[in-house]
Write a structure and sequence with these properties.
Blueprint (H helix, E strand, L loop, with lengths): L1 H26 L14 H9 L7 H4 L7 H15 L5 H15 L7 H8 L3 H7 L6 H7 L2 H4 L11 H8 L5 H11 L18 H12 L2
The chain binds heme C (HEC) (2 copies).
Length: 214
Amino acid sequence: MKHKLRECVLVGVALAAMTALVVGEEIHLPQDVSRLRASPLPGYALAQQKCGICHSADYINYQPPGMNQQQWTAEVRKMQQSYGAPLDDADIARIGAYLAVTYGSARADDAAVVAASASPAAGARAAQAGSAIDVPALLGANACLTCHATDRKIVGPAFHAIAEKYRGKADAQSTVAASIRNGGVGKWGEVPMPPMSNLSEAQAMAVAAFVLRQ
Ligand code: HEC
Ligand code: HEC
């Protein structure tokens, strides 16, 4: 009898652990972009950065094969218009071209793909803006404000709480800049922050300085 009971408890514990695993999988954030198919097209890096914000790459993998550039570009535009994905026209064109070549019927040397891929992306424009780094534009282009606000928690901690935590710490700015570029999990909770590796070091330093002033 005693033995039975212990068995029950063990099964219970195992079940609880499995449930935790399954639940862990479900809240696994939008960050699973590693499975996007690689490509030399510039839209690949952009898609890695922008398309993992809200959901995994499965959504892309499950689209019907053979979609053309127009169809893929329309799909990307829908993410912007219906769901608020932070994309400008150049981003949409580049990502549409990448997806159409990598998952659909387009070819990398199609004139329309070459043209779409050549248009400057938001990040590049922000970088070209020279010494004056446009922090609000970077926050917008990288969906920071979808997850962060100044004084309340959304998905990520309030910028004000981050500033408090690092106040008076040596290297606060470079530590926070590194957290922004590398992403991370566990410092504030279980939800991961996606890496913002498209930001240059200088851009991340400027954004970090801004966060630490909040
Ligand atoms: C701001 C959040 C957000 C971002 C960023 C985003 N999506 Fe979506 N996406 C959604 C939502 C919401 C759905 C609908 C989910 C559902 O119906 O279950 C969706 C669905 C999809 C689907 C399934 C087909 C469909 O139309 O419903 C595809 C394909 C897709 N997204 C591709 C992309 C690509 C490519 C990117 C990057 C350019 C992207 N998504 C970025 C929110 C987003
Ligand atoms: C998908 C949601 C999401 C997006 C988008 C996002 N973050 Fe975060 N961020 C988080 C979460 C969640 C954490 C907490 C991670 C942890 O617990 O370690 C976090 C943590 C941080 C931290 C604290 C790091 C530390 O070392 O304590 C900073 C700073 C930060 N984010 C800035 C940004 C900036 C700037 C952007 C845009 C370039 C951004 N975040 C985009 C969710 C997000």
